[in-house]
Design a protein that fits this description.
- By secondary structure, this protein is of the alpha/beta class.
- It folds into three domains: 89 residues, no CATH class; 384 residues, Glycogen Phosphorylase B (Rossmann fold); 328 residues, 3-Layer(aba) Sandwich (Rossmann fold), CATH 3.40.50.2000.
- 49% of the residues lie in helices and 15% in strands.
- Strands 7-10-11-4-1-12-13-17-18 form a nine-stranded mixed sheet. The chain has a six-stranded parallel sheet with strand order 21-20-19-22-23-24, sandwiched between helices. It has a three-stranded antiparallel sheet with strand order 14-16-15.
- The chain binds 4-amino-1-beta-D-glucopyranosylpyrimidin-2(1H)-one.
- 4-amino-1-beta-D-glucopyranosylpyrimidin-2(1H)-one binds next to helix 7.
């Protein structure tokens, strides 16, 4: 209210000591030097670029903290409803540049470090990516945090503070992926605040005894107790004081070591429990789109992953409840103050955990508790691939979380009773919908639990949400009504994915639209104003010149990191994403081979008329995903042959860039003329890099899948290149493959020829690739033989279109102009309004 009494001591003394946000260059240089001197114990004589990065980061962090404190105080005072975004992955990338952009201090910092003898660009390069995620799902979480803060919405993220992020990818001379650890916390991390006083105890194992008083309560005791310690990461909004929080939990032993064993001289046993506690948050699981059930992991691996999930959900819920209880409201009001978003099924244990707390600790009745739970949670599904749907073996859950298994069984019993009431005698339906899948062992179906425990369920693009409603959760739609099942099409933050990664383009847009950057970057529909300039020759030339400079920047990056020379007078064709059969990198590389064979068969005169092209791949394969790793090997070896062929190398170059990361994407995306999003129809839930490429004026070559469809709706079908079969045909085509296979030579001779060349050893020992080629020759689950011809035809259309350079640039401008819908600001506002019922809560 402003009239409140100062809480302690003398207000004037406090206020005189308080730091404000840095304003001018001299504030910044002072803070920088001060941190170099005191926090880092360095001086002008021995401060290298890395030290200077750290000093700049600490100065920026102080500014973030000022805003962060004000934001949290504002939330505490106003006590608005808040949303909590539970995600096992937050793929943040680098922070410094984003922090300065959002603080509005980029120019000042640049000038300041220059005065101190450094170059900001060099310092930014010194920062290591925070890579606590596998791919799309984790990067989406990061974009949503940026948008929540930018739109002044009270959202906190909750995740795990892994000691090791996604592995570092190395490529051996033979072309094999090798994995090395990512010890990203090796140096001090200036972006986090250890909260050693914010801790919770989390129990595992032990036994759960149901009380005999008919209350339904139970007593869970014994087993292992582990501490969760909070680390807070500040999330600044763009051009606002609002700075939200991402709280990451780290595990630590409840007791340092076991004194009895220690005294008995058994030192190894004494620290054993401390090791197993620390192990919980030590490493990010690198399996993407794979349920642990099929991950081919040892039982210990599965158990540890289950422990990660429970550890994180239990600590987060305890923290959320403590914050709520501090307000003094009755527990039945909880859903009015907290919405909890489940990012995929990974945090689904939060549902039985909240039931446990409400029943066993708060002593509510089952119905009261279930009422609260089903008004609190929201579930986003990110995939319909069967192998990615999480299931946990019942004996494992019973061993690790005995009380939760009881609760899951109880939820299931009440649920199936209700289903039986609505659909009497439909036993198949009961079996299909049950939370428990029969078999040896029985399994808990986490998507079913997430669905029935949530207020709403959504998919991440129109087509995907429709597939969720009509396939994996069809029975649930029939039972609960369709209105519970919605769609929120994904988005990406234009701060990082346009302004930061493509500063020149962003500046040109600002100048052209005559709208302040701070306005259009938060109201991306304003980009549409660019349409008026497609006919402006001068504007087109500037647009094209920026793309060219971005290509040169990428080429310099490849030159310095790999020592390879990329030609920049060519079309840049990019496919960057996790390696997975459904994403069909294989289709792309086989298309490259086809192009190579075609070029080889031409006379030099014919060749000289062809479009020059450089193809880039990047992406990691899950360490145990054999076929995906073979695909990498094939790409690398095709590159080796093609790039050395004097006949063709002016017309076709190929690069596999190792160790794909957020930072590498920031260099690749602005340089792309065309990017490939070519999943088998119906398999890619949304895709988000498709949005990033188009936002940066790259055109899209893709299948009619995921968010590609909505991108085409926005930019117009004549500005995208579509090919391939549509989703409704897929099931039938797969049936044909299984029961009426046609030899590949007959069905798709062009593809057969390519496969034969690979087998025959054109790219080194052909035998090595047989298992990969056989996935196409036999079964062809991802329909390469069905889509290859239309893919090649689409590539030809891309070549033709590119040869008309002027028209291409117009397409590029039109594409950027129509990307407003895909800002993550739009997406997060949809969640806030239609799901969480939250209001914007600016810092006053
Ligand atoms: C991904 C999907 O594969 C993408 O289509 C989607 O754009 C993103 O999520 C974000 O919604 N996804 C992922 O990265 N990991 C999973 N386990 C499941 C989906």
């Amino acid at each position: 209210t402003g009239k409140e009494k100062w809480p302690k001591g003398e207000e004037e003394v406090w206020k005189a000591g308080m730091r404000g946000v840095d304003k001018d260059v001299s504030d910044i240089t002072k803070s920088f030097v001060n941190h170099a001197q005191t926090s880092l114990a360095r001086q002008a004589y021995n401060l290298d670029d890395f030290g200077a990065y750290e000093a700049a980061a600490l100065a920026a962090r102080d500014d973030l903290l000022v805003n962060w404190n004000e934001t949290q105080l504002n939330y505490t005072r106003k006590n608005p409803k808040r949303a909590y975004y539970l995600s096992l992955e937050f793929l943040m990338g680098r922070t410094l540049d984003n922090a300065l952009l959002n603080l509005g201090l980029k120019g000042e910092f640049e000038e300041g470090v220059k005065k101190l003898g450094f170059n900001m660009e060099d310092l930014l390069e010194k920062e290591r990516d925070a890579a606590l995620g596998n791919g799309g799902l984790g990067r989406l979480a990061a974009c949503y945090l940026d948008s929540s803060a930018s739109q002044e919405i009270p959202v906190w993220g909750y995740g795990l503070r892994y000691q090791y992020g996604i592995f570092q990818q190395l490529i051996s001379p033979e072309g094999n992926q090798l994995e090395a650890p990512d010890p990203w916390l090796e140096h001090q991390n200036p972006w986090e605040l250890p909260r050693l006083d914010v801790t919770y105890e989390v129990r595992f194992y032990g036994h759960a005894e149901r009380s005999s008083d008919g209350s339904g309560r139970a007593n869970w005791s014994g087993g292992q107790e582990v501490m969760a310690v909070a680390y807070d990461v500040m999330i600044p909004g763009y051009n606002t004081k609002t700075t939200n929080n991402l709280r990451l939990w780290q595990s630590k032993p409840k007791r340092g070591f076991d004194l009895n064993s220690f005294n008995a001289g058994n030192y190894e046993a004494a620290v054993e429990s401390s090791n197993s506690a620390a192990a919980i948050t030590s490493v990010l699981y690198p399996n993407d789109h794979t349920s642990t059930d099929l991950a081919n992991e040892a039982t210990v691996g599965k158990e540890l992953r289950l422990k990660q999930q429970y550890f994180w959900t239990a600590a987060s819920l305890a923290d959320i409840l403590r914050r709520f209880k501090n307000t003094g409201k009755p527990i039945t009001d909880f859903p009015d103050y907290a919405a909890i978003q489940l990012n995929d099924t990974h945090p689904t244990l939060a549902i039985p955990e909240l039931m446990r707390i409400l029943i066993d600790e708060e002593e509510l009745s089952w119905n009261q508790a279930w009422q609260i739970v089903t008004n609190t949670f929201f579930y986003t599904n990110h995939t319909v691939l069967p192998e990615a749907l999480e299931k946990w073996a019942v004996p494992l859950v019973e061993h690790v979380l005995p009380r939760h298994l009881q609760i899951i069984y109880d939820i299931n019993m009440y649920f199936l009773q209700a289903v039986e009431k609505k659909f009497p005698g439909d036993r198949d339906r009961l079996a299909r919908m049950s939370l428990i899948e029969e078999g040896y062992p029985k399994q808990v179906r986490m998507a079913h639990l997430a669905c029935i425990g949530s207020r709403k369920v959504n998919g991440v693009a129109e087509l995907h949400s429709e597939l969720v409603r009509t396939t994996i959760l069809k029975d649930f739609v029939e039972f609960e009504g369709v209105s519970k099942f919605g769609n929120v099409t994904n988005g990406v933050t234009p701060r990082r994915w346009l302004d930061q990664c493509n500063h020149e383009l962003s500046d040109l847009i600002t100048k052209t639209l005559k709208i302040e950057k701070k306005v259009w970057l938060k109201d991306l529909a304003k980009l549409e104003g660019l349409l008026a300039f497609t006919e402006d020759k001068n504007f087109r030339e500037q647009w094209a010149a920026i793309k060219q400079r971005n290509k040169e920047r990428l080429a310099r990056h490849v030159q310095t990191t790999l020592g390879l020379t990329v030609r920049t007078d060519a079309m840049f064709d990019v496919q960057i994403k996790r390696l997975h059969e459904y994403k069909r990198q294989t289709l792309n590389i086989l298309g490259v081979i086809h192009r190579y064979l075609t070029l080889k068969s031409m006379t030099p005169a014919e060749r000289s008329k062809c479009n020059r092209k450089v193809v880039f791949f990047a992406g990691k394969a899950a360490p145990a995903y054999y076929i995906a790793k073979l695909t990498i090997r094939l790409i690398v070896n095709v590159a080796r042959v093609i790039n050395a062929d004097a006949d063709t190398k002016d017309f076709l170059q190929l690069y596999f860039l190792p160790d794909y990361s957020v930072s590498l994407a920031e260099v690749l995306i602005p340089a792309s003329d065309i990017s490939q999003h070519i999943s088998t129809a119906g398999t890619e839930a949304s895709g988000t890099s498709n949005m990033k490429f188009c936002l940066n004026g790259g055109l899209l070559l893709g299948t009619v899948d995921g968010a590609n469809i909505e991108i085409a709706e926005e930019v117009g079908e004549n500005n995208v290149f579509f090919f391939g079969h549509l989703t409704p045909a897929v099931e039938d085509l797969r049936y044909q493959h299984a029961y009426h296979p046609v030899p590949i030579e007959q069905k798709c001779p062009a593809l057969a020829k390519v496969l034969n060349e690979v087998s025959a050893g054109m790219f080194g020992d052909g035998g090595v690739y047989e298992p990969l080629l056989n996935t196409i020759r036999q079964g062809d689950y991802y329909l390469l033989t069905d889509d290859f011809d239309s893919y090649i035809a689409a590539l030809a259309m891309v070549d033709d279109a590119y040869l008309d350079r002027d028209e291409w640039i117009k397409k590029s401008i039109r594409t950027t102009a129509k990307m407003g819908k895909f800002s993550s600001d739009r997406a997060i506002l949809e969640y806030a309004e239609s799901y969480w019922n939250l209001e914007q809560t600016p810092v006053s």
